[in-house]
Task: structure prediction
Amino acid sequence: MGFRLMMVTNVKQIMKLQSFARNLLAATAADVPKGYFAVYVGENQKQRFVVPISYLSDPSFQDLLSQAEDEFGFDHPTGGLTIPCKVASFIELTSRLQLNNL
Result:
């Protein structure tokens, strides 16, 4: 019984994460809601993500911002905040942050 409940809980978390990832990828310029900000992520081809401002206080996210500062300074080629990491790594980090906020 406990094992089944744990599986159901894990499935719900996975579904929430999938929804969260879809929302991150589907964002356009017009839909950055209050309390969120847009970032461009990728090493070669940049993808745009919209993330909660609350992530700015997380040490892991701050490390990414430091890397962005080291690489780009404050002159970002896309006109927005650019984070030079693999998209998969960024999604993993934001998914973990999302789980911590559940």
